[in-house]
Design goal:
homotetramer; 318 residues; alpha/beta; D-Maltodextrin-Binding Protein, domain 2; Alpha-Beta Plaits; 3 domains; five-stranded mixed sheet; prephenate dehydratase activity (chains A, B, C, D); aromatic amino acid biosynthesis (chains A, B, C, D); phenylalanine biosynthesis (chains A, B, C, D); Preph_deHydtase (chains A, B, C, D)
């Protein structure tokens, strides 16, 4: 499904087709606008395009996705060398009920829906269409496109809101998902080693293996953060898979590798852990300024280094 | 889909229908054999049956499920009061390619498959059936049952191995999943407050909220474990959802609440955390004996209490 | 120097003779008033009287003494079994210059003084009596009493303020010590296992040995305190003496063994350490109310135990 | 008592006179041999000579001294700016009983002794000279020199072993101290900012103030050491004296400021503490090689910095 003629430095891979939540995430990326967008079938394909140099970046779901693949994405980032996260995007996960123009809600007897989307809007459907039937779809977008198949028996489809830009459908109902606050977190992944500039509202992602499985080694890992005032926004243990009881940790921390406190925590982590993978520093999707105690300011780190340098050089202390 | 006449103390709810991986997990439960099994559509329904007293227990996927719902399951356990985990079960996740009797692999042109199962066996399918088409199914089991629909165009289906007990199908290929080591972890959930007996190979599950989001509060939480030599086998942050940046932690620890070191850690945790939910102590699915340093033996805790009691009572020390 | 006829339950040993700073500490003990006071020569003798049952308690200097013996006192408490601290007393350490009645400061050519007291008032003496000579004395009190020896060459003596109650001397100058804030901390030591009542302004003294000399074992010890919000007011490493690099720690903590947070810290400590010696809980000499975070209130500990008891008994949670 | 004509770069101050334990420590300093030795009266004077530039260094007792002044020495190092410890020396503290030539032990009726030395050899004296009298002396050396005073009533003196080099005395008994293992630790203090070379058997001395007196700040300080595998050989709380309940800590750690793990711990400490005073890195008196886990090797620190530098520069990781 790749387009061999596309300029890889101008190509973005995403879980397609047009209309998915993943595409909605990609629409948030200013530098991707007007470039080639490469629709693929799953996370593995998306990252393979990037690794092979056929795409400059891939948009993948990394947390709470209704399109699946989150665990696969985390494990892929942990095991495929050379990948970096360069941006984070949030997409409100909600569903619309759509039909061919002219259809009314009362006419709907059969609903086409991806099984996961169906499960997540089942409450609304049972309340409003108590006698409906369900036809499964291979994806959220195909649920809607299949309405136009000649042999389709479905009267309506559960679809992402973006579907209205792709198809001539009528929206019979909005916000039919059972959880009105559902959000999926996406990351843009590339092989570029250039780090997005520090903004003060940044996040840094890491994969860390513990030196052993003794009680206390997780604690020792976290001390590397807390002793520098670095907050975590995500921590998740994942079995490494090579042996019983060994784990790696997916960690998101608040701050940028160019923040002194983060850089120093990374140094501590690298000394402590047999394997620590830097997945990138990037602007937070929520643009929220990182708050931290002033005792972890860059100046404090710089001053301490100056002080130590003075001692080591034999100069009098200030 | 509930059976009103069933004896709730003899009824087990599970994500059905017969043939799912969840049913395979339930088959591992000795006390469920010969009882009423209630097939439901999703985790929410399964837990609702238990809470309503219509089922004595529900089997739900809690980690790495290909049938979905893991995050929903974790969040449900965190928010629905009164639930307890009473058992843990592992099911090897693999798929078979099945067809109506007499079908040969070479005959297969169209494959029916749940979208997630399809994604996970896509590698095998593309290698062995490069020109196949895909028809989505609402579930892994329906993929196979639909082969017998009069109007079905599919020649084969991707299905769980258990399907052979349900349908008169022929297995065209086994182990077609792309990840040969994939395992899903299931838990049996009930409202019973009786705790399964301590076996020495136990696990305890908790939900813990941190007192605030300061750097260091996660560390302080983990100190409650490490200072008593209690190992964690799972830790996962989950946004609480009521405010930005607040997390709860899903924690599995090695040991039983009747182990002194675990009981003491729970005491420390309860004092530390504004909310800690005990989800249960239960036998580990892998039967692996817990290893811990002898300085955390029950006797050490008991001896220390005797010592303190002696001091407080004014008796001479030994 | 013991008085064999004294009732041991009514006898207090102290570093004498009358007039010492230690006697000034003993004067602060209400229950010692009107009882037999036994003057001894050093800390070892004082504690020996208590251990032998010839004295009900001994007053000894434990920190910042000008009369010496602090290290010896700490080591004695660590090694002599059965001793308990039952009270704490502070004495302002200052000196007066005294002489036989009729003597004027201008007349003073030779000063009798214990060498340590002399060192501590040397500044004043050199400024005010630049040409004086020094005769050493065996103790601060003997410095003054020797003025009345027939063959004494001294014109004045450096002595504790309490000397005026013992001898018919004239005070030529007050507050001649070089450090106006000097204070010595004394403790009253007995073999009674009865613990002084909790007042809210208490201190608890411990001797703790670390399990080994690895980096981190001191930290692990202190976690036992910090994780229960228990503050230390004194920590001091002392070589154990049986092997290179092994230390015991003299620890004073804020609170009473009947405070839940302190009791729990002691439990943790006892489990952690190969040897922990409870030296007593007693009212603080400065009467300062202990401040601690409300999350370490007794109620929190009691509530947590109730919660755990409910879980273990299989009762429903509140 | 200073010698104005002495070359300060060639002058060593010590608690004199010749024959003291402090002199015995100074005799262990190769570079001091053949230079001017300046005998002073106490620690304060010794350090004042150094600060004023009249002495190149001063030998002072810092732990377990029978000559007193240890607390004063610690507090002086904490408050007098510009001082550095450049060497550590151990002197076995024992006493000899000496007399004028021709005296026999049986002849001894009166013993001259510094009060502290007397207390420490009282056991031997009472066993061997049960009826002896005691005349106090201003110092251990004067106890012996006074034997030669015309009007002395003493028959023998308790004195340091070094006295035999100073006076024509006969040793009546050796090793009469009650504690056969007693050792005093001395340090050589100068204002030189040059740090003695790293030997692998080094010690580093610090004074650290805690940011506040909350439970946990001492723990946080020690984490700076333990997280880098740095062991402490001494820790002692000392009241700062400016306010109730504030403490500074006298800390000796194993290692040299040029060890990466020590340098990094100092950086962490400096960021953490409102005031940390580097008192020097110097060769250990016991020449014992520092043992530490290989994960704290210099190479580990250097490798981690290289790794971080690669990330920050945008170069591909190795």
């Amino acid at each position: 499904m790749t387009d061999a003629s596309a300029d890889p430095s101008e190509t973005y891979a995403y879980l397609g087709p047009a209309g998915t939540f993943t595409e909605a995430a990609l629409k948030q990326v200013p530098e991707a606008q007007g470039k080639t967008w490469l629709s693929v079938n799953n996370v593995g394909e998306a990252l393979a395009e990037v690794v092979a140099g056929r795409a400059t970046a891939a948009m993948i779901a990394i947390e709470n996705s209704v399109e699946g693949g989150v665990t696969a994405a985390q494990d892929a980032l942990a095991t495929i060398p050379g990948l970096r996260i360069v941006g984070e995007y949030l997409v409100k996960v909600n569903f619309v009920l759509v039909a061919k123009p002219g259809t009314k809600l009362d006419d709907v007897k059969v609903v086409n829906a991806h099984p996961v989307a169906y499960a997540q809007s089942r409450g609304w459907l049972e309340r409003n269409l108590p006698d409906h039937g369900h036809i499964p779809a291979a994806s959220n977008v195909y649920a809607a496109t299949s309405l136009f198949d000649a042999d389709s028996n479905a009267d309506a489809a559960v679809a992402p809101p973006g579907i209205v830009d792709q198809l001539d459908v009528e929206v019979l109902a909005r916000d039919i998902g059972d959880n009105p606050n559902a959000v999926t977190r996406f990351v843009l992944v590339s092989t570029s080693k250039a780090i997005p500039p520090r903004t003060g509202a940044d996040k840094t992602s890491l994969i860390v293996e513990l030196p052993d499985d003794e009680a206390g080694s997780l604690l020792a890992m976290l001390e590397q953060f807390s002793t520098r005032g670095v907050n975590l926004s995500l921590i998740q243990s994942r079995p490494i898979g090579d042996a019983l009881g060994r784990y790696r940790f997916v960690v998101d921390l608040e701050g940028h590798v160019e923040d002194e406190r983060v850089a120093d925590a990374l140094l501590g982590l690298r000394r402590f852990s047999p394997r620590v993978l830097f997945l990138g520093s990037y602007h937070r999707a929520d643009h929220r300024e990182i708050e931290y105690h002033s005792k972890y300011d860059d100046e404090i780190f710089i001053e301490a280094r100056d002080w130590l340098r003075g001692i080591l050089s034999g100069e009098p202390e200030a």
